[in-house]
Design brief:
The protein is α/β, with parallel strands linked by helices. The chain contains 12 helices and 8 strands. Helices cover 44% and strands 10% of the residues. The longest helix is centred in the last third of the chain and has 25 residues.
Amino acid sequence: MSGQDAKMRVQDLLNSRVFESLRLSQPELFCKVVPVSGDITLPGLGISESDMTMMSQNVSVAFHCAATVRFDEPLKSAVDLNMKGVKRMLDVCKKLKHLEVLIHVSTAYVNCLRPELNETIYPAVCDPSKLMNTLDWLDEGTVTALTKSLLNGLPNTYTYTKGLGEHVIRDESLPFPVAIIRPTIVTSSWKEPMPGWVDSINGPTGFVAGCAAGIFRTLYCHTHMITDLIPAEYPTNLMISAAWHTVEHRMPSLCVYTIGSSGLNPVYWSDLEKYIYPYMMKNPISMTLWPPGGSFKSSYVHHKIDMVLYHNLPAYTLDFLVRCCGKKPFFCEAT
């Protein structure tokens, strides 16, 4: 949908299979959907004055889902999207005269270094305001050099900035209540809107697609550990329920809800290896670079050796052949 305006993008979405049952049962509801163009990186989210006026008179519930979910996002960009983006959203929400609640989507892994987690906001690893202000005048190279130190043991810029994004909300004086939703690893739907529905290749979907295409041959993980997957409709339903509950029951100004599957129906990494690979062999996709295969590795050394043999060397070889044909190489980037 790159290059399309907001109206075309929304129309394509509403015409998709996702809303097929709603089109048949309640087609009149679609007239309530009004596209608004915006950009999370711009002041006021880049929303036009006319759209802002319309929203201020009509919006009573806001859902903030926009973020970068890339684990390897450069810190400066991640801060701009996941922290400053939150601040810009709050500034817009303050202008909505009838807003009763804001639902902010975070992640269950913002406190992943803690052995036990409660539905609360723990002390910040740093002052979010000072971090945002400091990164404004530091160049990209300096920020990259400081990133590991700033992460303070957290695995990536995603969990780091999403956690500080929660503090941006907590530190703000808001005239409306906020509910923070912390899902675990969101994957394709279980039943609604249809079994197996997914609209991106982020997270486990990208991993499965890479395995099916023969790109991923090794993954460093401990197979006895739980991979906390949650079908997409569950956090979506929680977002809607939390909005209703917050308003209906006059909840405190800030509530936190965590949703995952590991407590009731845990899925282990060994389960993925056990069930996914045989399914791929029985149901191959049309375009593959290599037959599905590979395995999970609990040894980092073993994993790195397989990375060189089955990822790096084939990718460099294929990119060399592509260059010889006068084409732009892409295999190294894909792996």
